[in-house]
Amino acid sequence: MRVLFLCHNHPTLQPGGTEVFSRNLFRELRDRHGVEGLFLAAVTSSHREPLPGTVVQAVGQATDEMLLWLDNFDRFFLTQPDTYGLATLAPLIEALAPDVVHVHHALQLGTETIDLVRRLAPRARFIFTAHDFFPICPQEGQLLTTDGRLCNGPTLDGCLRCFPDRGATDIVMRQLELRDVFADFDHILVPSEFARGRYVASGWSPERFSVMPNGVPELPAAPFRTVPDGRRDRFGFFGHINRFKGSLMLLRASHRLSEAGVAHRVTLHGGAAYQSEAFMAEFNTALAAAPAVHYRGAYVAEELAGLMQQVDWVVIPSIWWENAPLVVQEAFRHRRPVICSGIGGTAEMVRDGVDGLHAPVKDPAGLAEVMRRAIETEGLWQRLVEGIAPPVTLAESANRHLRLYEAALAVASV
C-alpha cells in the first residue's frame, strides 16, 4: 500500500499536536506494517525560505518526508492561489501513485492542493482527519467570537458579527465550498465525539464520520516525585503559549493561590512563536505577578518524560473548545491526573473525579479553587491516578487506520 500524508507543517519546525501525531502515525505505518509513501508538510517563509525552481524541500535525512513551500495562503477561504507553484508537484504525485491520500489539515495547503492531488491520483481513496475546526469556523478555527466568547457553531449572523468587513456572500460561499470539497472524501475522522457533534451541527453529513482517537507511543511512565509529607502541589503546563491554551488563566490562578498563602509550584513548558506583542506583554506581566510560576520555554519530545517527572498534575486551562489535545494522552501515559476546563473534547477525555478534575472555563478564581482542592484533599491525587486508563497507543491507532484504509480500498475495488 502506498499512502500520501498531507499536513500543514512538520513537527521539527512546529511541534503541534497534529504535526506530531500525523508524522508518528506515518512512521508507525511504515515501520510496523510496511506501508510505503510520503509525508508532505506545507511550510511558508515563516519557517523556511523558498528554494529556486521548486516548491519541494528536504527535511532532515528522511527520504520519505518533504516540505512543500507555499505562500500567499488565504486563511479565510482556506484557498491556495499559487497554482503555478503547485503544478510542480505533478511529477512527484504521479510517481508515488498513492492508493490512499490522508489529509491531516487544509491549512497552507488549501483546497486547490487537494483538488490537484485528486486529479493526479484519480484511483486513490481520500481520508480527512478533522483535528480542529478550521473547515467550519473562519475565525481561525477557534469557535470563539472576536470578543472571546465560546461559539456553538457558525451561523450567518454570528459570522458576520465576527467579520463585519465581509459580506454574507463570502460567509455562505466559504461554508458551501469547504463542505463541497470534503464531501468528496471517502471518510472523515475526528478524535472526539464532541468534534463530530460540532461538524454535524454545521450541516456535515453524520454518516461520513468516524471517531478515531489519536495515539501516543508506548513508553515507560515517568516515576512519581518522592513526597514524604504526601503534599502533591506541583503543576505542569505543556503546550503552545498563546491566549487560547489558557496560560494567562493559569498564571492568574497561581497568583491568587500565592496571595492566599497556598504553597505550590507551576511550571510552564512550551514555545511562544508567532504571538503578538500585546499578548506577550500581557503574559510577561502576569508571569511577573505569579512568584510560584516558572516559564521554561520550548521542549522537545525526548524531554517530556523528564519534565513530567517533576510535576504531580497537568493543567489544561484552555478558553476554547479543544478537540482532543494530545497532551491529555501524554499526561495519562505518564499517569498524571489532568485539571482541565470542563468543556469540549478535553472534558470528554478527562473524567471529572475519576482521572482528573474539571475547572470553570476562563475563570482564574475557579481554577485556583480547583488547584487548591487538588493540593489539600487527602487521598485525592492517589485516587485519580488509580482511575487513569492507559491511552490509545500509537500501535493501536496505526492498526485502526490501516483497517480503515483497507476497507476504503476494498469498497473501491467492488
Automatic annotation (TrEMBL):
Query: According to the lineage, what is the superkingdom?
Result: Bacteria
What the entry lists under SUPFAM superfamilies is as follows: UDP-Glycosyltransferase/glycogen phosphorylase (SSF53756)
Tell me the keywords, alphabetical order: Transferase
Q: Which Gene3D superfamilies match?
A: Glycogen Phosphorylase B
Specify the Glycosyltransferase subfamily 4-like N-terminal domain's residue ranges: 15-216
Q: Which InterPro entries match?
A: Glyco_trans_4-like_N (IPR028098)
What is this protein's record name? Glycosyltransferase family 4 protein
Q: Which organism is it from?
A: Belnapia arida
